[in-house]
Amino acid sequence: MDANNRIKELRQALGLSQAKFAEQIAISNGYIAGLELGNRKLNERISKLICSTFKVNERWLNSGEGDIFLASQGEDLNQVSIILNELSPAFKSHALSQLQQLLELQRNLEKVVDESKNAEK
Fold it and tell me: How far apart are CA 37 and CA 112, in angstroms?
C-alpha cells in the first residue's frame, strides 16, 4: 500500500468525507481526491499538515510502518503534567508563558486562514 492509499485509509478511519478532511488541513477536496486516486504525489508539506492536524504517525503515513496514530491526547497531557511538576517554579512559569504564546500564535494563524477562505468566497 502506498501513501496515497494510506491517506484514504486514514480519512475513512477518522470518519471524514474528502471535503471535511481537506477543510481540516486547509486544502481543496479536489487535491485530496487527486491524492487518493494516485493522480497527485504526497509532498512533505501536506504530509506534515496531515500528521500534525490528525496526530498521525509520519512514519506510518510515508512508509506504512508503525501505528497510524500517535499517542492519545490523554497521554500527551500526562507527559506535560509530569514535566511541569519536575520544573522549578521559575522554569514552570516560563514554560506556561511559552505555551500561552504558542496558543495565541495558533489562534492568530487560524484567523488568517479563515479570513483568507472568506475572501476567496
Answer: 30
Neighbours of 3 (CB within 10 A): 18
Cβ atoms of 54 and 10 within 8 Å: the answer is yes
Read off the CATH number of the domain in which 58 is found.
1.10.260.40
What's the domain range around 27? 3-63
pLDDT for the residue numbered 75 = 73
97 in a domain, yes or no? yes
pLDDT at residue 17, as a whole number: 93
Residues of the chain with pLDDT under 70: 71-74, 121
83-105 pLDDT, tens per residue?
888 899 999 999 999 999 998 99
Determine the Cα–Cα distance for residues 56 and 91; give it in Å rounded to an integer: 30
1's CB contacts (< 8 A; 6+ apart) are 9, 64
Does residue 68 belong to any structural domain of this protein?
no
